[in-house]
Design goal:
single chain; mainly alpha; Tetracycline Repressor, domain 2; about 80% helix
């Protein structure tokens, strides 16, 4: 039952936001009593913390699956971005990540600490792949570009209230990041994906 509650809460939090969804909402959606939820989670904050851990795990499992498909580096980044836009598609106007930072700052900080290592590793592997593909320049300072992109992406997510605006800015950031590293062939590949960024 605990896993079912976490799964349903994750779905609702991503769809409608961490602040908007109450324990009553989750109980109602699952056709269980609120008492049942409190049997496993002493308060909403504990539930939010456990759901963010699950979301983190699912995100990185999906990224690993995309990476295993062996797309070229630029296509891989667009596939990952599409996955994020689908997973974090919110019915609420306010971005779930923005809500998490505003209303549960300590949990947000824990999430960011987990993400530093995971995302830095992912960005580094992508840059190395791009250099091998001939789409990124060989002389790149990889550590610097990893840090720049990480700061750019997480600044957007933590400080942009509107989910729609956050997704638009993420696409701009991906283009900016790719152009900064790209060879002429990389620019051609980038332009191709910019024509249909959601495919």
């Amino acid at each position: 039952m605990k896993e079912k509650i976490i799964a349903k809460a994750s779905e609702l939090f991503l769809k409608l936001g961490f602040k908007s969804i109450t324990m009553d909402d989750i109980a109602c959606e699952m056709c269980i009593s609120k008492k049942t939820i409190y049997k496993y989670f002493c308060n909403k904050e504990v539930l939010v913390e456990e759901t963010t851990a699950l979301i983190h795990k699912e995100v990185h499992q999906t990224i690993d699956k995309i990476v295993s498909m062996d797309y070229n580096a630029i296509e891989e980044n667009f596939k990952i971005r599409k996955m994020f836009s689908e997973m974090f598609k919110s019915s609420s106007e306010t971005s779930p990540i923005y809500q998490l930072k505003k209303h549960y700052p300590e949990i947000f900080e824990k999430v960011m600490l987990r993400e530093v290592d995971e995302c830095s590793k992912c960005f580094r592997q992508n840059i190395e792949k791009g250099i091998e593909n001939g789409f990124y320049r060989k002389e790149l300072k990889i550590d610097t570009h990893v840090k720049f992109y990480y700061m750019l992406v997480f600044n957007i997510n933590g400080n942009t209230m509107s989910e729609k605006e956050a997704q638009e800015l993420e696409l701009e950031a991906l283009e900016y990041h790719t152009r900064a590293m790209a060879t002429p062939n990389g620019i051609i590949e980038l332009e191709k994906h910019l024509l249909n960024p959601y495919i």
